[in-house]
Amino acid sequence: MLAGSFTGKLPSFNEYYDETDPAITTDFGTEVEGLEAPWGQVQFVFHYDEEKIDTPPATFDELKQWLQENPQQFTYPAADEFTGNAFLRQLLYAKADQPSDIYNQAFEEKKVSGPANDMWDYLNDIQPDLWRSGEHYPNSLEELDQLYRQGEVAMTMGYNEARAESLIEDGVFPESTKSFVMEPGSLGNTHFLSIPFNSPDKSGALVAINDMLSPEAQLEKQKPGVWGESSPISFEKLNDAQKEQFESVDRGSSVLDEEKLENTFMPEGDLEYVDWLEDEWINEIAQN
Asked: pLDDT tens across 141-165, in order?
């Protein structure tokens, strides 16, 4: 359904994007092979109230320790909910020897059994210290956000590094809300532009996509009043003036800086992980 490989023809892509970065060479575990051009990114982050938590946990082990000291103050959505499933994928990456062991290979249950077993053990271990002792998991991110708003839990999460800003502005989240990521990094998703095989003006499409990938367009798109999300552009390939422009964009006090986000970005693995984790979570956690 696509017109063919085209990213090599784009000056903006060749000059400002890292052609070896798995965040833009794969799309949910599928090799892009030049058929798609990276247009934007979002990342999974945790949110917390800095008036209640001085220093958020830096690892899942620290989160477990924090939960033991602050029981009932954390939970995550059920695995059939998008954010809850992303939380599980984030944890699975952390339990692997290297995150790339997950996102660089097609899904095979046998190959992932080791980190998966460690993940289920971890989730069962923390269950007694979760909100309501894990007897109920939020059915939606909105439900988790409501618990955070009401002060029943001290953290929430989401697959958008800038989403808290609008919630702070609307009075849903406290103004003291900040975001953080834990080791080994932040699960991220790149969305792409492409050209259909029957496009009546493929040359015009190339010109448009090249412009949309340019530093000027990506900078404008990053501004909160325009779009407000992260850019897949390689920060290291920008000149000093361009770097300064990107760094000067005020995305809000709850949003991590661009370099931190880029350095912690981990691409999504094979899409089959999503359904598999949902089914296995029911067997390993929910039914226990």
From this structure: 999 999 999 999 999 999 999 999 9
Query: Quick one: 181 and 195 in the same domain?
Result: no
Q: Clarify whether residues 64 and 174 are in a common domain.
A: yes
CATH number for the domain including 231?
Answer: 3.40.190.10
Dist. CA 198–CA 223, nearest whole Å: 33
Instruction: Say whether both 142 and 278 belong to one domain.
Output: yes
Neighbours of 7 (CB within 10 A): 26
Strand 186-193 and strand 265-267: the pairing is parallel
Please, what is the end-to-end C-alpha distance for the chain in angstroms? 45
| Same domain assignment for residues 144 and 209 | no
Alpha helices in 213-251 (DSSP H): 215-222, 240-248
- DSSP annotation of 130 reads S
User: Which residues partner with 211 through β-bridges?
Assistant: none
Q: How far is CA 200 from CA 35, 37, 211, in A?
A: 17, 19, 19
**If we measure between CA atoms, which residue out of 264, 244, 207 comes closest to residue 23?**
264
pTM of the model: 0.88
Range(s) of the domain holding residue 139 = 45-186+267-286
Q: For 139-143, 255-259, 279-283, which range has the lowest pLDDT when averaged over its residues? A: 255-259
Is position 262 within any domain?
A: no
Residue 122 maps to a domain: yes
State the Cα angle at 60 between 82 and 163, rounded to 5°.
Answer: 40
**Which residue is associated with the tokens 């530093």?**
215
Residues contacting residue 149 through CB under 8 Å, at least 6 positions apart: 172, 173
Do 151 and 248 lie in one domain? The reply is: no
**Tens digit of each residue's pLDDT (9 = 90 or more) over 36-58:** 999 999 999 999 999 999 999 99
User: Which amino acid belongs to residue 266?
Assistant: M
Based on the fold, state whether residues 180 and 202 are members of the same structural domain: no
Other CB atoms within a 10 A radius of the CB of residue 147 amount to 19
